[in-house]
Structures are given as structure tokens and as C-alpha cells.
Specification:
With 322 residues, the protein is of the alpha/beta class. Helices cover 35% and strands 18% of the residues.
Length: 322
């Protein structure tokens, strides 16, 4: 593929007291007490953005530009990149939420990824084909444009097909959390499938890189502002929201314009657990096999030793100073 490909990273500095105060100002009842809605774990950061950027520069130097989307913040990564990539690095642009919410400013501020992902395609100057990543994702081996877009710009969707009626049934019979339906990413994907007219199946998207096409968002969201408003009117994650990227993929699937690939073939996922030797066993598995995509989730909850072991692997793999 010869067309430019940008990468979009959503990032937040959870230690920023100004942002924390803003969350407290807009939170309703107990929203800040639940990690799946507005708990502090959702915003914690220990510098993962630097490793993410380093992995892109090391293993995907063909990327045209990197956009970092923030809420009036700046990760200040220039010194880190200049130290580790003295011969030059991929251009970076910081994009404030206000830029992508133009025309919808009344819904700001927002503190949830579902709202953000509904608007990322509106970044000024964004390439037609782009890749969305969170800062806890990184590349663990060299990648090529064909890992993200097949043939004439057809996006690769790293997901598996799931039985929609069966999963809806299991969700109904599961115990509700605090007497309310559980708020899950799976539920948000199902909501998108129902909007798309799917009754029998949906795409189970996992937490990995997402190749996306701006035009598809324009067709399924830009031409339906009522859907945009439905998804961005909640400051924090809400059960009424849908996964905009799921809707995007299903829109293209109906046109037979996606390439479905199993994420288990390329994705390594690690979330620290309170088990002796767990992280070392996971890292040994990672070292034994070259995974293109790596997700290190909730590292703020890792022990000091586990975090040091993970950092050592990252520094060696990316050939950087941490």
C-alpha cells in the first residue's frame, strides 16, 4: 500500500490534579468508584506512551505521522525521542479534544474512550487510512503496512466472529452488578451490531491495534449526527454507548471490505497478577515467540520487581533507555 498511514494514540496523564478535579466536578454519584466507569485505574499512566512511540519508530518507520489525542495535556516526549532516536523520528502532533469535538463542544469534557473513538476520525489532516492505538499497546517486532491494510486499502480487523443471540442470553442470566446491567466492552460491541442491523453475529474486537478508514466513519457516523450525539453525551462510560469502531468494521463488512484475522496469532497480552512468578512466565513465553503486537495492561498495579522485569524486556527489545 503506497498511501500514507497515520497512527492515532489516545493518552491521559492520570496524575494531573487539574484533570482529576475536572473528573470530580462532572462525576455523578459513584462513577469515580468503579474502575469500569471512572475509577483511577482507567487514567493511570507510568510512562507507557514513551514505549509505545519508541516501538512505532523502531518497528514501523514507514508511518507518516503520529497524532496524540489529549485533554489539554502534553506528554513531553521530545527529549526521550531525541535521546533514543538521534537520527530522527516520526513527526508527532498533539491534538486537543476541542479540535475533534468542533460543532459538538457542548458535550465536553469527556472522560471515556467510547466517546473519543467516536470522534477520532475528525482529526484535521488525518490520513484516509489510519491506525488507532492506546498507550498501553506497542509493537514487539517489525510490522509492515500489509499487517494493517490488505489489498487496495482494505482494513485488517483483528477479531473473531461471535454469536450475538447466545452472548446476549448469557449476559441476561449473569448476575447484575449492584442491581444494574453490567457495563462491558462486549455490551458496547453488541450495541453497535444492533445499530448496524446485525441480529446473529458481531465482531469480537480485542484490545489491540485497530486499522481504520476515515471514509467509513464519515458514512456510518458523519452522515448520522444523531448517532454521534448518542455516544458522546455521556461524560463517563455508559451502558447506552456503542463501540464506534465495531460499527465502522460492520459497515465495511456489509460491503465485503474488511480482512478478518485472528488476533491470537499476533497479540501478546499481559496484565500483572498477584501470583508468584506469573510475570516471569509470561515474559518467557513472549521471548520464545515474536509477537507483533503487545499489550501491557494496568502496569500501575504491578509489583516493583514485575515492573522492572517488564521494563527490562522493553528496553532490550526496542533498544532504548528507559
Amino acid at each position: 500500500m503506497t498511501q500514507p498511514i497515520d497512527i492515532v494514540i489516545t493518552w491521559v496523564d492520570g496524575q494531573d490534579e487539574a484533570l482529576a478535579e475536572k473528573r470530580r466536578q462532572y462525576a455523578l454519584s459513584d462513577e469515580l468508584e468503579h474502575d469500569d466507569v471512572g475509577g483511577i485505574t482507567r487514567y493511570a499512566s507510568i510512562g507507557e506512551i514513551k514505549w509505545c512511540l519508541a516501538s512505532i519508530n523502531r518497528f514501523a518507520p514507514w508511518v507518516h505521522k503520529i497524532f496524540i489525542v489529549t485533554d489539554n495535556q502534553n506528554p513531553n516526549v521530545t527529549p526521550f525521542l531525541e535521546e533514543n532516536f538521534p537520527e530522527g523520528y516520526i513527526p508527532i502532533e498533539i491534538v486537543d479534544h476541542k479540535e475533534i469535538f468542533k460543532g459538538f463542544e457542548q458535550f465536553l469534557p469527556i472522560f471515556n474512550s467510547l466517546s473519543l473513538e467516536t470522534m477520532l476520525w475528525r482529526i484535521p489532516g488525518l490520513s484516509r487510512h489510519f491506525i488507532e492505538m492506546n498507550d498501553d499497546l506497542m509493537f514487539g517486532a517489525p510490522v509492515s503496512p500489509e499487517d494493517f491494510f490488505a489489498g487496495e486499502g482494505v482494513p485488517v480487523c483483528y477479531a473473531t466472529k461471535a454469536n450475538l443471540p447466545l452472548i446476549r442470553l448469557t449476559r441476561m442470566i449473569k448476575r447484575h452488578k449492584d442491581g444494574k446491567p453490567r457495563l462491558t466492552f462486549k455490551g458496547n460491541m453488541i450495541a453497535a451490531a444492533l445499530i448496524a442491523g446485525n441480529r446473529w453475529w458481531f465482531l469480537m474486537i480485542c484490545h489491540t491495534v485497530k486499522p481504520l478508514v476515515r471514509d467509513a466513519f464519515e458514512e456510518c457516523l458523519g452522515q448520522h449526527p444523531e448517532l454521534i450525539e448518542r455516544n458522546i453525551r455521556h461524560h463517563f462510560r455508559h451502558i447506552e454507548q456503542f463501540n464506534a469502531e465495531e460499527l465502522h468494521y460492520l459497515h465495511l463488512a456489509h460491503k465485503k471490505r474488511i480482512c478478518l484475522r485472528n488476533p491470537s496469532d499476533v497479540l501478546f497480552y499481559l496484565q500483572p497478577r498477584n501470583r508468584k512468578g506469573y510475570v516471569l512466565r509470561k515474559l518467557a513465553h513472549l521471548k520464545a515467540r515474536s509477537y507483533k503486537f503487545c499489550c501491557f495492561n494496568n502496569l500501575n498495579q504491578a509489583s516493583e520487581q514485575d515492573l522492572n522485569d517488564i521494563k527490562a524486556w522493553i528496553a532490550e527489545t526496542l533498544n532504548i533507555s528507559i
